[in-house]
């Protein structure tokens, strides 16, 4: 077994990745990939909680691997794999589902936010159990660090509770993982109301061209009290200002002064912001184009990741079965 500690982190293949993924999770994945052994999960079963359409799952999964590679994930260090291809996820999920109450899952704030954002009237049994499957995802690989956005922190807490419960009941098998957040753990979406999210569509995509980025950023809701250039603005309530803090750090104080005085209008400010985002995404776009033209390479990376992940998952399940004496 490798001496390095493991990281497990994943994303749902529900569409192309956006800026929130990059600044909330992917940047940490890349930063930590030499220090830890990173396992990156394509959560295709989790996608079923909000998307019943399965025809696009495979293509979305391939697109996501391309986005991950483009963001700098090194497939030699970091296996990437689909949850649905490794049956041990389903097996461990079933065992874990006996170790947590429905009342605990109903208190999950992430679920409440999602139900509100997606205006869902009813949720499935599997959707309620989302964090239980996620606990299985993380603990199958004995992940000790989970680099995620803020919305996922309550899920990591549930994972810790399940690990503790299992260890108390059957013997020490699992670590209690810690979440790892970036400075931008909840990047707001272009509508200004909720976090940037694939399902809500309030996004700038990693694959967007500079023109598309500008068009998207132009639609952003800014300071609602600043109607026209000349009106004094309130940068702290403006999501474009948040984006400047990430993508245009050197001009932040100048932008604050000029926005507050009214000298800087939203149209110019957005144009500048879009250009800086486009610059930041240029290397990602370039790598993306390479992998889009080398799909066989992408598929081979996925197959290799699935083989490596499966070996670890099988080993953990043997330990689980032995601890539970269900051999
Ligand atoms: P969906 O709307 O389908 O749930 P999503 O955009 O929320 O998609 P996920 O696949 O659920 O994306 O999340 C993948 C990872 O990216 C998680 O760690 C999540 O916390 C992080 N993440 C997603 N959106 C943001 C955001 N706006 N800011 C910071 N991190 C984010
Ligand atoms: Mg989500």
Outline of this structure?
The protein is mostly helical and about 325 residues long.
Structure description:
It is built from 14 helices and five strands. It is mainly alpha-helical and 327 residues long. The chain has two domains: 212 residues, Rossmann fold; 78 residues, Tyrosyl-Transfer RNA Synthetase. A three-stranded parallel β-sheet has the order 1-2-3, with helices on both faces. Strands 4-5 form a two-stranded parallel ribbon. Helix 10 packs antiparallel against helix 13. The longest helix has 29 residues. The chain is globular, with a radius of gyration of 21 Å. The model has no long low-confidence stretch (mean pLDDT 94). Bound molecules: adenosine-5'-triphosphate and magnesium ion. The site of adenosine-5'-triphosphate has 19 residues, from helix 1. The site of adenosine-5'-triphosphate (ATP) has 19 residues, from helix 1.
């Amino acid at each position: 077994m490798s001496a390095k500690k493991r990281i497990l982190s994943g994303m749902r293949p529900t569409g192309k990745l956006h800026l929130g993924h990059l600044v909330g999770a992917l940047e940490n994945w890349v930063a930590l990939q030499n220090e830890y052994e990173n396992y990156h999960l394509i959560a295709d079963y989790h996608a079923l909680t909000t998307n019943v359409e399965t025809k696009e799952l495979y293509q979305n999964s391939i697109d996501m691997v391309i986005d991950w590679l483009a963001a700098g994930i090194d497939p030699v260090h970091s296996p990437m794999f689909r949850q649905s291809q490794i049956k041990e996820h389903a097996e461990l999920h079933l065992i874990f589902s006996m170790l947590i109450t429905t009342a605990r899952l109903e208190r999950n704030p992430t679920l409440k936010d999602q139900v509100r954002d997606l205006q869902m009237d009813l949720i499935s049994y599997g959707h309620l159990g989302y964090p239980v499957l996620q606990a299985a995802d993380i603990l199958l690989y004995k992940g000790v660090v989970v680099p995620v956005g803020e919305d996922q922190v309550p899920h990591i807490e549930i994972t810790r509770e399940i690990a503790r419960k299992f260890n108390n009941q059957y013997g020490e098998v699992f670590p209690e993982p810690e979440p790892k957040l970036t400075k931008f753990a909840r990047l707001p979406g272009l509508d200004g109301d909720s976090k940037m999210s694939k399902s809500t569509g309030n996004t700038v995509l990693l694959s967007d061209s500079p023109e598309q980025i500008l068009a998207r950023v132009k639609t952003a809701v800014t300071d609602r009290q600043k109607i026209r250039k000349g009106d004094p603005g309130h940068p702290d309530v403006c999501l474009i200002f948040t984006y400047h803090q990430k993508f245009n750090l050197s001009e932040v104080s100048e932008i604050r002064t000029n926005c507050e005085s009214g000298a800087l209008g939203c149209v110019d400010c957005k144009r500048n912001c879009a250009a800086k985002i486009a610059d930041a995404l240029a290397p990602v776009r370039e790598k993306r184009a390479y992998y889009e033209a080398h799909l066989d390479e992408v598929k081979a990376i996925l197959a290799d990741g699935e083989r490596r992940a499966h070996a670890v998952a099988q080993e953990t399940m043997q330990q689980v079965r032995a601890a539970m004496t269900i051999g």
